[in-house]
Amino acid sequence: MGFNPERAGRQFAENLKRYRTSILLGSVIGLFTGGPAGLVMGGLFGYFASRMLSKAMSNYHPQQLLFRATFAVMGKIAKADGRVSEHEIAFANAVMDQMKLVGEKRQEAIDQFTLGKDPDYDIGTLLRPLAKYLKYRPDVRMIFVEVQLQAAFADGEVSRDELAVIQQVCAFLQMTEQEVEILISRMRAQQSFHQQGEYGFSPEQAAQRVAAAYQVLGVDESASDAEVKKAYRRLMSQHHPDKLLAKGLPEEMVQMAKEKSQEIQAAYEQVKKARKAA
To answer: Is residue 197 domain-shared with residue 267, that is, in the same domain?
Structure first.
């Protein structure tokens, strides 16, 4: 990408507006300590000091950590089996589109994805501090892991190396093996549910779709109507966009929660339809 004077000028104007208090304070102090030259130097010092501090703080902001980890881990998973496939790149771009990332924010996501692909990159640098934040936000943690599982399934099936990265991620986030197994099972069911919906509805395919719908909800076909509804409500509560936003899910990721809710709703409607027809 070449230098764009108009964009650079606009960005500079935005920075001046954003850090105007620090610039003004630095200028006043500089004026009293060094005269006119001090005014200029003080203003510059206020601008750069405030900008550096803001950047440093953003690196440790929980939502920023979550954003960066989303794409860095995605890159790690994509590269786990030695080659990043077109499907994995397409999935990463689809997530960025889903999050409506443009300009600098999209470039940041691309940079994190590229960083994650580096074999020497330690994802623990992001996941260790993030784990402390997500410890008491299991629903947000679940959404994060679900996105990574989707990335692993992007080229069809989770490889042994991709699974190893997933397990490493979940270990950093202090998740139990049972929690991980449940998530993987549900993600496989969601993949199957989508695939069955893409084709015709022969009796066999219809049965497979219903079976996948039950797995999405995490219940057996022998479960009572009350048990099915309870499972559905629990999953909908865990994926409720407003609740997740209040718990710290970055605003960019809310659309992903909405789509998860729609998938759960579709599975529940499929189960209800099958039970009514039985």
So the answer is: yes
